[in-house]
Amino acid sequence: MPKTGRKFHFVVFTTLGRLAFGYTTGTSSWACYVVPSGQEDSIFGREVVAKIRLVWDGKNSTLCVNDAAVRTTTYTPYIPLWSSTPSFTFGADNSVAGTAFAGFFALDDTVADFEVR
């Protein structure tokens, strides 16, 4: 059954003082990877370029950090419900989905090599 809402999402946050990455890949359920204690600065520290990659195939989604797979989860993809007001934001949050008011909480880091196939 088609669903609406955020389906592809990646966020960097802290939880209980730990660095974490959360993501969704075409489904409403999300996955989380908590960086092992003591590795935060080597992965996402000052002057460090973090290479993040999300790969999904309709059954499994994998988060890769600096070319290493760190989390793989199974999922059931949703069929998107397209309308005249879809929204795709990159580097920001679209808190008012389906409107022209995208760009809240804009990312202040550089994003490079974004690819959709």
Task: Write up what this structure looks like.
The chain is mainly beta. It has one domain. Helix content is 4%, strand content 32%. It contains one helix and six strands. It has one helix at residues 40-44, and strands at 8-15, 18-25, 31-34, 52-56, 60-65, 68-74. The strands form two sheets. The protein has a three-stranded antiparallel beta sheet with strand order 1-2-3, with no helix packed on it. Strands 4-5-6 form a three-stranded antiparallel beta sheet, with no helix packed on it. The longest helix is centred in the middle third of the chain and has 5 residues, at 40-44. It is globular. The two termini are 24 Å apart.
Order of helices and strands: EEEHEEE
The order of strands across the largest sheet is: 1-2-3
Beta-strand segment tally: 6
Q: What is the average of the pLDDT values?
A: 77
- C-alpha Rg (nearest Å): 15 Å
Supply the number of structural domains.
1
> What structural class do you assign from the helix and strand content?
mainly beta
What's the overall geometry?
Answer: globular
Low-confidence stretches: none
| Percent helix | under 10%
Q: Strand count, sense and closure of the main sheet?
A: 3 strands, antiparallel
Please work out how many helical segments DSSP would assign.
Answer: 1
What fraction of the residues are assigned to beta strands by DSSP?
A: 25-35%
Cα distance, first to last residue?
A: 24 Å
